[in-house]
């Protein structure tokens, strides 16, 4: 008979990306403390109660909400995990940069928790809200996540300065 932990894990499902996964791009809004945890490598799974359809392998541009108000990084979706809040907690508690009390408060009343496992995280020189509005007319930060077109993504790449270790900036494209 499986242990409680194994039984809980079996309630998780996953959409893992393969070589044929369609690459898309999107901007995701994340609060400053959680964005910094992702950009520093302390958080590798982003939690959501709901999320629009997005492909494994998609690039997510990290929009840091106010008071920062800027795109400050980019990452790639490694896996999208769905399960009960309990199962997600038991499996990923050490990768989500949140304590149990805050986790329970966030998922209160939810039957499903969604974890977006992130990889290839890159910090970029922040692209502020005014630059973003020049980049895309009428830009408003998404409440959750907003897809962007290939041409919008190309222009966003042109604005991005990717930071390398040691603090030097180089412009380069992140390849999934």
From TrEMBL:
Which keywords belong to this entry?
Answer: DNA-binding
Any one Pfam family match given in the protein's UniProt record, by short name: ASCH
What are the residue boundaries of the ASCH domain, all occurrences included?
29-80
One function term, GO molecular function aspect: DNA binding
Task: Please report the name of this protein according to its UniProt entry.
Answer: DNA-binding protein
Originating species: Mesorhizobium hawassense
């Amino acid at each position: 008979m499986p242990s409680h932990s194994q039984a809980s894990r079996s309630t998780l499902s996953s959409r893992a990306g393969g070589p044929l996964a369609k690459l898309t791009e999107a901007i995701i809004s994340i609060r400053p403390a959680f964005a910094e945890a992702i950009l520093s490598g302390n958080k590798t799974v982003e939690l959501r109660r709901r999320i629009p359809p997005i492909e494994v392998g998609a690039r997510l541009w990290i929009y840091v909400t106010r008071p920062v108000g800027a795109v400050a990084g980019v990452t790639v979706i490694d896996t999208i995990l769905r399960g009960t809040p309990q199962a997600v907690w038991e499996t990923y508690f050490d990768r989500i940069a949140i304590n149990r009390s805050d986790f329970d408060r966030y998922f209160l009343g939810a039957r499903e928790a969604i974890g977006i496992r992130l990889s290839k995280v890159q910090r970029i020189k922040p692209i502020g809200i005014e630059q973003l509005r020049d980049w895309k007319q009428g830009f408003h930060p998404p409440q959750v996540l907003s897809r962007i077109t290939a041409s919008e993504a190309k222009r966003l790449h042109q604005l991005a300065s990717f930071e390398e270790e040691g603090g030097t900036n180089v412009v380069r494209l992140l390849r999934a």
